[in-house]
Amino acid sequence: MLLYIHGFNSSPLSDKGVITADFMAKYYPEVTFCQPQLPSNIQDAMVLLEHIIQQAKMKGEALHYIGSSLGGYLASYLAETYGGQAVLINPAVNPSELFEELTGAQYNPYTHETYQIKPEHKSQLIEYNTAVILHPERFFVLLQTGDEVLDYKLAVQKYYCCQLLVQPGGDHSFIGYENQLRSICDFLQFDH
């Protein structure tokens, strides 16, 4: 199974989400591809993701993740906790700190949902922090230095022991993401 985990205020309809779904359908149709719309509440999102993982494990499927931004933060926790391999795209390292600035009303342009970020959401996020990567062989981390939302250097520090691709320039969306899908699938060990 490949579980694609989108970022904050995003959706499977994001550019990366659509590109990944199309690529998997074309080149790896035999791989179960799961790309849920995550609830805005972090605990509800993790309940959904953990349910999907448990279902895959019951079917005997290997676990693979692609996580973008906040999805990368969650994918780190899932890979460390449940096993499997994770590809992280410009992952958030300390999103609970960013949530302080985001407290209040939020709007998801993909789902048109309006919701509130409350102070308790910060502590909920901290529950899923992987302060130290214990299984670096499980991770392939793609970063662009031009990320205008997150400081890529924090991810370099956290994932220094993992397979890293650091590209100069770019932005938070990871420009040229579609060009990385072959190497992503190679890392995830999908058969050609």
The CATH first-level class comes to Alpha Beta
- Supply the number of structural domains: 1
Q: Which outline best applies?
A: globular
Uncertain regions: pLDDT < 50 for 5+ in a row?
none
Instruction: Count the E strands.
Output: 8
Overall pLDDT? 94
Beta-strand percent range: 15-25%
Order of helices and strands: EHEHEHEHEEHEHEH
End-to-end C-alpha gap: 16 Å
What strand order characterises the main sheet?
A: 2-1-3-4-7-8
Main beta sheet, described? 6 strands, parallel
- The percentage helix is 25-40%
Pfam families: UPF0227
Protein name: Esterase YqiA
InterPro entries: AB_hydrolase_fold, UPF0227/Esterase_YqiA
Organism: Shewanella surugensis
Written overview of the protein:
There is one protein chain. With 192 residues, the protein is α/β, with parallel strands linked by helices. The protein has helices at 15-27, 42-58, 70-82, 95-102, 119-126, 152-158, 181-187, and strands at residues 2-5, 33-34, 64-68, 85-89, 104-108, 113-117, 139-144, 163-167. The strands form two sheets. Strands 2-1-3-4-7-8 form a six-stranded parallel sheet, sandwiched between helices. Strands 5-6 form a two-stranded antiparallel ribbon. Helix 4 runs antiparallel to helix 5. The longest helix is centred in the N-terminal third of the chain and has 17 residues, at 42-58. It is globular, with a radius of gyration of 16 Å. It starts with a strand and ends in a 5-residue tail after the last helix. The model has no long low-confidence stretch (mean pLDDT 94). This is Esterase YqiA. InterPro entries: AB_hydrolase_fold (IPR029058), UPF0227/Esterase_YqiA (IPR008886). It holds the Pfam family UPF0227.
